[in-house]
Sequence to fold (85 residues):
Amino acid sequence: MKKVVIYTGPMCNFCSAAKHLLDKKKVNYTEFDIAVDSSKRQEMQEKTNGARTIPQIFIGDTYVGGYNELKALEVEGKLNTLLEI
Fold:
């Protein structure tokens, strides 16, 4: 399974929904709370060409986007392939 990284923040319903979807699929992920570590906020913005919203999700070298994009991949049946499940 590819490495999954998710940038999150406090009191973020979309972050919770993204983590819930990944947990439901039993996907291990690394979470970075950008409110706690400002260097991770800068890292996230550099990797996403300036995105400021959270969550921001990466699967392997693929930039997925936020929760809506992650959910769309699941609905389209493409998430398992991207994760290599």
User: Anything to note?
Assistant: The mean pLDDT is 96. The domain at 4-83 is CATH 3.40.30.10 (Glutaredoxin). The two ends are 6 Å apart (CA to CA).
